[in-house]
## 1
Amino acid sequence: MSMAGNLRKVTSLGGVGGLRKVARLARRRPRVDLSHPARSPLGSSVVNCVTYRDGVRTSARGDLVDTVERVRKSREGFVWLGLHEPTDQEFAGIAELFDLHPLAVEDAIEAHQRPKLERYGETLFAVFKTVCYVEHEELTATSEVVNTGEIMVFVGADFVITVRHGRHGSLGPLREELESDPGQLAKGPSAVLHALADHVVDDYLTVTDSVQADIDQVETDVFSEAGARADPGRIYQLKRELLELKRAVVPLSRPLEDLATRPIRVVDPEIQAYFRDVSDHLLRAKEQIAAFDELLNSILQAHLAQVTVAQNEDMRKITAWAAIVAVPTMVCGVYGMNFDHMPELHWRYGYGMVIGVISVACFALYRGFRRSGWL
């Protein structure tokens, strides 16, 4: 029976005392490879449970408790346990086995946390916001651009527990990449923590590049000939999605700074240099987001200015035509008052003269407005 299979039984028993009962079931179940979420049994939050020694993946022997005890007695290697959206009952036995702090456990189960780094005794608890770009054929006022999730990481001297929330951000490819570099993985759980942070920040840069393409398209549309008729809802939608991305990226600066500069027992000193590199990449993502925010503000202001100019153009045209129409309205109004004694009222050519005067006056006004650019 695989360690992951034992773990599912562990979570149903809800405590370390019940973990020993799993051992006798080991020979009754086939081994299940949980290296990828697609191969995880239905109804289980366990994605993977693997032991590493000297950076090399080792085969599981016995139940989870025996494996953890064996790793701790030998003081070599560590256990990497991956979970996806576990429930309270599923996580209860794990929390007791690894002596996880209740506050950190609550955060890992409930999710919706800000990126942060906390220490509970000998255990390090980190929260990362994951992001992915939502593909769309055309950006609209209701298009979803950025989708977010979370990864919570418990790091101890001999274990790493990752708790993932959200439909994206699978760690399978990351695990395979780490296993291809045993030298880095041999540095212990902190190497996994660095790889996770680097993976998350790289996704930030990928998403910002994709968002830039949407912003460029909006900018092109606004400054086109029909820019005044562009939909401002798309600009507001991009600003909302950019705000969601900002909430994921900006708060991570302090945790990465602590990992890169402050001495932490469970973090290998050699790994801290790698965290400084991740912090530099995060700074680049932050600068891009800040630049995008400023650019969207400028685009929105330019669009509003274009709308104002277009409205002024329309008002000038309306005013010009109103002035032209006012001439025949005035003349016809005067001669429609039905007085008996009015100039040229009974003149044979009076009608033609009035029509001529109206036509000449309207034409003169039209030429004047055309020359001034009002028509």
Note: The chain has twelve helices and seven strands.
## 2
Amino acid sequence: MNKKLKINFLFLFLLIGCGSKKQPLIQDVNGTHRLTSNQIWLSHEHILVDFIGADSIQPNKWNHDTIIKEVMPYLQELKEFNVTYFVDATPDYLGRDVLLLEKIANKTGINIITNTGLYGARNNKFIPEYAQEMAAEDLAKMWINEYKNGIDGTSIRPGFIKIGIDTSDSLPVIHKKLVKAAALSHLKTGLTIASHTGKAIGLWSQLDILKEIGVSPEAFIWVHAQEEDNNDNYLKAAKLGCWISLDGLGWELEKHVEKLLFAKRNGILDRILISHDSGWYDPQRENQAIRPYTNIFKKLYPELKTHGFTEEEFKVLLSVNPSKAFLIEVRKSPSDKNSQ
């Protein structure tokens, strides 16, 4: 083999090797995208929520045109702030409607991310009867199937796993099952687990289950962490690697400012997510009371600037952190990695 041919083969080998390296991906209702850390995210919002309960919910009665007409002005406002990713945190049996989300994404140009999973908070009101008796492994198979083949007969795939628990030190059996199913699903899909948790008392047992199954806390978002009163628990959670979501900015501001200043002083801004938990259209209401998705930009950021927050720190909260939190990648616990 002559020298020129050897060089060509070497170049081809390097090209194939580089091309085969997996690129981190984000999954929205219109497909997968390569991960970038310079886009603006809203990491916990809602477009439609129906609180009627799993035994009574009737998605076929929702009028998409009516819903879109109501919510569109609030979503159009986001153009001014260059929002690229909108994480819709409404789970199945609470108003998840992926075809509605797809229509809205196509009308607005916003990348909307939906989810798989089940929501056990509020005394299991939103858990369907079939899930009560199913094993965690069987639930995981259903959620993995949605990721691989699409949701409700569509080609739309989830971009994360959404579960919910009622805050307690010792989780009810069904909530342990949800966490286990989420962990098993993560290991097969790489989808991040976002768990409606609230106070830290409900966090540690979830992280223990993840550890038992071999999932890193880096694959877990502690949702509604703003409800925690002891800020030292944020330090503990951040040290473990879990994401801490302060997502009530559609409702309150002062508490978030104090907690973000605490995070900055203690060097854990790189584990914090912020969002509004705002919206939403409620099919059970005659008169809608939709809250805007803009408090972060119009109220929070100006307030943080008066306390010395920089543009770069704000970018960490709204771009860098969520792009890492929602990337599709299997994240195993350190002990499990070492055993491979």
Note: The mean pLDDT is 92.
